[in-house]
Amino acid sequence: MKDTTNLKLDVKRSKFQAMGEARCPQCREGKMFKYPFWRVEKFSEMNTHCPDCGLKFEVEPGFWYGAMFVSYANTVALLVVLGVAVFYIFNDPPVMYYILPITVLSVVIVPFNFRISRAVFLHLFGFVKYKPKA
């Protein structure tokens, strides 16, 4: 039987939860963005460094261009699901019944999609290791 006394069970946030809450990938405590996403006029204002551990969020110049691909994938997946739902709920309606809800939804989710894309990209491709506080 293996010794389980050295297991780390003191993790406050999982990696998935930290991505969803847009928290720092290194400490999983500091917020990446200055304001909540429903503040539409300031949804894109991001902290340059983590308020808790001081990690610089922009790993290298132009790093956030990669988040555009994550955003694109999120949007396409959501809009395909919405298109299929419209098809089955309304029994293959005219084209306008697809265009209107898909356009409205894609505009409404911009603040959320922007933030989640940056958080996911930083956590998965920023090569930052989790370092819990001692």
Question: Could you walk me through the main structural features you see in this protein, from its secondary elements to its overall organization?
Answer:
There is one protein chain. By secondary structure, the chain is mainly α. It is 45% helix and 0% strand.
Unreliable stretches (pLDDT < 50, length at least 5) are none
**What best-fitting shape do the alpha-carbon axes yield?**
elongated
Helix count equals 4
Q: Strand portion, in percent?
A: under 5%
> What class, by secondary structure content?
mainly alpha
- How many DSSP-defined strands? 0
Structure keywords:
4 helices; single chain; mainly alpha; 45% helix; 134 residues; elongated
Topology:
Elements: H1 15-20, H2 65-89, H3 96-108, H4 110-125
Short overview:
The chain is 45% helix and 0% strand. The chain contains four helices and no strands.
